[in-house]
Amino acid sequence: MSFIRPEVQEKLAKTRPFAIGAGLLLLGLYWLVDGGGVMRFVGAGLAVLGGVLLWDGARRARFPASGDGSGVVEIDERRITYYGPDGGSSVSLNDVARIRINTTDQGPFMADLYWEFTERSGLRLVFPGDAVGAEKIFDALAVFDGADFQAIVEANTHTEDASFLVWEDAQLRLEG
Question: Membrane-spanning residues where (predicted)?
Answer without folding.
Answer: 12-32, 38-55
